[in-house]
Design a protein that fits this description.
The chain is an alpha+beta fold. The protein has helices at residues 18-31, 51-61, 76-82, 85-92, 104-107, 142-158; strands spanning 13-16, 35-40, 68-73, 97-101, 115-119, 124-127, 134-138, 160-161. It has one domain (13-164): Endonuclease, Chain A (2-Layer Sandwich), CATH 3.30.870. The chain contains six helices and eight strands, in the order E-H-E-H-E-H-H-E-H-E-E-E-H-E. A hairpin with a 4-residue loop joins strand 5 and strand 6. The chain is globular. This is DUF7931 domain-containing protein. Pfam families: DUF7931. Residues 19-168 form the DUF7931 domain.
Length: 170
């Protein structure tokens, strides 16, 4: 019997603790068909780096023509220096997995302290403070996901490609 808490399909629930957050993140990835949007001020070593999370990201990125994983990352240079495994995956699958950095005018805003993951099934994980593993999540909550998706789209349009992450191809 699994002790991992599951997300109720339609109603948001509280997420509290790193283990709970990791379980919710994996559930969102498993429920994703083709599209994923991620906003992270920083990429810590324990986020999106487990073998199961990376396998799900690879599955999504190679799921077909419409596959798209878009990530807005506040500090890609630090993730590159740390050798984060997500960066390696992005370099191997650059057409499906794109990473951008926030535009200069968006960097100082207070919302940059939050983090979220949105999938194409109206699922989301939202952390008001990215440094704390506390927030809310749902697998199917269109009204809850809509403002986050609108904000992500707005930020994505102004964000700049993270050119420092592109492989050299020597």
């Amino acid at each position: 019997m699994s002790t991992t808490p599951t997300i109720d399909d339609e109603s948001p629930r509280a997420v509290d603790g790193r283990e709970d957050m990791a379980a919710v993140r994996l559930q969102l990835l498993v429920a994703t068909r083709y599209k994923l949007a991620i906003y992270l001020p920083a990429l810590s070593p324990d986020i999106l780096s487990s073998p199961t999370e990376l396998a799900e990201l690879r599955r999504i990125a190679t799921s077909g023509r419409g596959a798209e994983i878009r990530i807005i990352l506040g500090d890609p240079a630090t993730a590159l220096r740390a050798g984060h495994r997500l960066i390696d995956l992005a370099q191997r699958l650059p057409t499906a997995l794109q990473i951008r950095t926030p535009a200069d005018e968006d960097i100082g805003e207070t919302r940059n302290s939050s983090a979220w993951i949105l999938n194409d099934g109206y699922g989301y994980l939202f952390l008001p403070n990215a440094d704390r593993p506390e927030g809310r999540a749902a697998l199917r909550d269109g009204p809850g996901q809509a403002p986050l998706l609108l904000e992500f789209e707005r930020l994505w349009e102004r964000a700049l490609p993270a050119t420092q992450l592109q492989p050299l191809g020597l």
